[in-house]
Request: fold
Amino acid sequence: MPRALLAALALVLLTAPVARAQVIGEQPTAPFPDPKKFSRGIFVEGQVGAMIYVGKMGKYADPGPAFALRGGYDLARWFAVELHVGGTTSAARTPDPQTGQTFQLFVYAAEARLQLQVRRVGLFLEYGGGLVHLPTNTLDAVGVTNGKRLTGAVIAGLGIDVHTLNRHFSVGLGADYMWLAQFSSSHIIAINTYIRYTN
Reply:
């Protein structure tokens, strides 16, 4: 009897299905970073780059380093309004005695910004207007400013914004074109890199 029992038990063990452990993988997660989790609202942006003059102003002024601050509010993930303050110091190439002199130029503007967000990369367009201020008479002698110190300006820009692993910060590269209404058919192109913090 014990032999028969052992034989039956061995038969059951040999024919029983093999137990396999079920490996449960990680639950699928949304790709990081999720644009819906990016901070949105009040923001400030610090910029550094270069300002290049085109047209008549470009004949008498060298490109110069540019610095700017932008600050505003995200009304939606794809739309923001902002204020823009910037400036540069450049060298003039005018006839003596002003050759080699430097001058400052300041920008004060209000803009709207449209942005298309694709995961962590945003492509944006900016458009607005404001004032450009040239406080010195350095370019009067060559007929660029003609005694004027302020001009209206129309500004259009584009760029790319890359979000960091921190939901508050992004970095980017942008270019702005400025049409100057009063400074003798002169234009400005500003190229900048920036870091942005959104509260």
